[in-house]
Predict the structure.
Amino acid sequence: MQSRFRLVSLLAALATVLTFAGAVAGAAVLIAQDEGIYNRRDIVQDATGLQTEDALTDYIGMNAQEQEAFAREIASRMGDERMDFDGIGLNEREQQHMLDVRALILRMQSAAQLCLSAAAVLAVAAAWAAGQGRIGRAALRGACWGVAALAVIVAALAAAVGVAGFERSFFFMHELLFENDLWLLNPQTDVLIRIMPQQLFEQAAIRLLGTAAALFALVLALLAATASVLGGVIRRMSGADRGNEAEGEDR
């Protein structure tokens, strides 16, 4: 019985960690494919200190309506690998970088699907492993282990970013994720860096954490409910089987 309790706890812990990984990847995909992220003139204005709309238009190279249309084009192409980024005002270097970004986002989308599917399988396995016993306590204990491990990892990453600073961490992340230096853009020649200053990425990181936390809580609740319902079905089936066996013996 104790070994079964530990097994259910381990499965629940793994499901929790995979759910969080899937939630983070899924949140990144949602943000990257949201046109709003490419149309934050307010953040550009705060970053540059420009006071008028005309000055902002001169700096970016697009007025508000043009940037809104540009943002829609970027967002629509981020989720469709059949489309390129030609013809929307990006130079060749920017186009290639956006292709690299989209490839990364599509990999994250696949990773999110894989992690969440694996978490669902583990939740079912935990319910099955519990057998006739109740899954609640063991699963809760495992989920707490998983959350504790995630808290340590997130705290360590936050501390590392705090020590290094967001800018250095941002550069390190790009060096880790990309095999080229096309992400090193020049505000004199590249519109992407003009519409997406560092402050935008700082706010996007906060939004990523919030979205990931919401997805994590939602999916974890769904997995817990599924495991609980399945556990009840297994117990009822086991009880019915025992009743049938006893009835057969009486006869």
